[in-house]
Amino acid sequence: MTQAKSKIETTILWGGALFISAIFLDSLRFKFAGHPTPEHIFTTLREWSGIGLFFPAGPWIIGLGELAASILLIGLPVIFLLTNKKDLIGLSQFLGAVAAFGIMSGAILFHLFTPLGIQTPVEWDAGSPTKYSAALFYSACASWVFAVLIMIFRRSNVEEFMRSSA
Hints:
about 75% helix, mainly alpha, single chain, membrane, 2 strands, 5 helices, DoxX family protein, elongated
């Protein structure tokens, strides 16, 4: 691998992992604190699907999945880097990317194919939405792309780990 290709790959791997983790970790304060936007999203999905699990449990379930993905994408790899266990970084990031891929695939599908839509409320006044934005949808799409790229680039690390474990 050329040095330039290696730098690009490293930038995509760590930059993508940081981007996804930043999106996921930032959203936790909304999901875990009962903000009206996640309530709107998951209540809309509950009413559309008839599945009661969407709200109030949905924000917590997705939030915990996003937290786990962030730990796998950034938290553990940094620990592995600092403890000189670099052979585990690829496996951890691959697993985090798989989780992010699944979460964001669901988000994208729900935005596109349910009454939720691409525009979601982002500002509220007295319990009513006052401003809508497509930022959540676009963030989900960008996170999905980064997750795919990380899975592609880290696939060989997983194969190598599996061979060494056999």
